Amino acid sequence: TTRLGAHWKPSPQSDFVASLIYRDKQENKLQINEQNLVNEQDFVNFRSEINIAAKDSGYQLEAQYYFHSDNMNVIAGIGSYDIDVEQLFSEALFINSIPVSPKNLTLYNFARKKSNAYFYTNVSYPQNLIWTLGISYANSKEADYELSELYPKFGLLWNIDNNTQFRFAAF
Question: Does residue 148 surpass a pLDDT of 90?
Answer without folding.
Answer: yes
